[in-house]
User: Fold this.
Amino acid sequence: MPRVIGVPARAILSRFQNADEKPDWAWYINRQLEVDQKAAPTYSEMSRQGGMSPCATPTTMDPCTPHFLRLKSISPIMEESSSFPTSSFGSVSEIRSQCSAASQSAATGKIWDLARDQQGSRHVQQLLDDAANDSEFEALALELQDHVGEAAMCPHANHVLRKCISPRAPRAFAMILHEFMSQDPEDIVQLARHRYGCRIIEKMFEVSEASQIDELCNILLEHAKDICMHAFGNYTMQHFLTHGPVRHRRELIQILADEIAEIGANFHAPAVITVALKQGTEEQAAILANALLKVPGLMAQMTRTKHGHAAVKLAMESLNEAEQEIARREFCAAASSRVQPPSKKSKKSGSKGGSAAAKGSPKAGGA
Assistant:
């Protein structure tokens, strides 16, 4: 097994380089810095030997040299090369290295491959931010065509897709919305409850007009209760209430009031109730608050959870004084019921201890 050598951080390394004396364990630092850069082949030589990527590490490098010192040693290679081979896409890492030092033209045709990679996704997002005009932005966004459903569930590509949903690219947004709504309703509901898919629907609510997302709202309303009670779906419905069309928001608040017994008892759904109480009219908030109060013990139960506590506080503000007094009595009754009397087991153990003490005292006196 080769010996593994730990490498200090850059700041610490620079101090050792400038120090007159070094500890014993830093014996290798000077030797690493004296690596002969002339031994590294040029970019053209590597290309003749087999088309190596300009980021590849030369085989003549000292195996003990840390990774970042190897990159420093081959920096002349990067400077020498002014263009990268584009005859084939190659691996994602090669595409990323080629595009990192080039303009948007180098990434054209490779956006989908880059978007699925962690670092490549960041690079594409930066290209979108740096687009000189809306035409360049839209040209990049349109490369996600035929990949919208897959991108929505990808841990890296979802960030790119979300950024492409923008007024800057109306044609690209129309394409994304068309592909998204071409899926089966069950798939759309699955995306609404997906860790990454919910973000795409949230962005659609933020930038779309009411007519564009009417069908999407109807699908979500049909499964509103299940989505509200889901760990990620509740975020979708919160955005529904914040940015959705007024007519659909009214329908969702009515669904919440009708299903309040089950929705209020859930851990995640009260976060949706909180947003409904904030975004709804005074009349709608009063309807929700009274629906909560009509279910015995529900408000008291909700006060013991993170999201339920916030919902109950807002609901209390929408109740009149008589209704608030009813709720307070309910809270007091629930609090008193949680005060448990001493268990029978502890009473028995206490009586046994007392009898033992009583038996022990005469013996002690006799002794």
About this structure: Residues 172 and 257 are 38 Å apart (CA to CA). The first helix runs from residue 10 to 18. Residues 31-88, 353-367 have pLDDT under 50 and may be disordered. Residues 1-74 form one domain.
